Amino acid sequence: LEAWKHPTSGQWLRTMCIVTVAAAPDLEYVHDRMPVVLERDEWSTWLDGNTSQVDLERMMNPTALDVITSYPISTRVNSVRNNDSELVAVLGNK
Q1: How far apart are CA 76 and CA 92, in angstroms?
Q2: How many Cα atoms are found within 13 Å in the side-chain-facing hemisphere of 3?
Q3: What mean pLDDT comes out for the span 41-59?
Q4: Is residue 49 within 8 Å of 39, Cβ to Cβ?
Q5: What are phi and psi of 86, to 5 degrees?
Q6: Which helix (H) or strand (E) element contains residue 5?
Q7: Could you give the 3-state DSSP secondary structure of residue 88?
Q8: How many CB atoms lie within 10 A of CB 17?
Q9: pLDDT tens digits along 22-42
Q10: 5, 38, 63, 82: least surrounded by Cβ within 10 Å?
Q11: Contact criterion met (CB below 8 Å) for 55 and 46
Q12: Distance, CA of 71 to CA of 61 (rounded, Å)
């Protein structure tokens, strides 16, 4: 998460990015990429501006399957036109 001031409007904006890697084999059915999820003991190394690129790349691995849980959800998430609470409803549990 980062905050920066827009050069013309002067408005402060918060931005972020999600770093992805190739999906773990058991999750490729969902998508070919997945987010990097760092262990708590890796956070300070990741955020340390002096960490080498090699060390950062070593942390960029598919997440262990016991950390991620998948649920079937509506295909409505595939369109940016849809923006309501139903997007997070788990199918079959309404």
Answers
A1: 15
A2: 3
A3: 94
A4: no
A5: -65, -20
A6: strand 2-5
A7: helix
A8: 7
A9: 998 888 888 899 999 998 999
A10: 5
A11: no
A12: 22
The H or E element containing residue 49 is none
**What string of DSSP letters covers 17-81?**
---EEEPPGGGTTT-SEEE----GGGHHHHH-TT--HHHHHHT--PPPTTT-----B-GGGG-TT
Residue for token pair 């990097």: 36
For residue 79, what are its two tokens?
């369109």
Q: Which amino acid is at 47?
A: L
With 0-12 CB in 10 A as exposed, 13-18 as middle and 19+ as buried, what is 85?
A: exposed
* Cβ atoms of residues 24 and 34 within 8 Å: yes
Token representation of residue 14: 């918060």
Q: Strand 2-5 vs strand 33-35: parallel, antiparallel, or unpaired?
A: unpaired
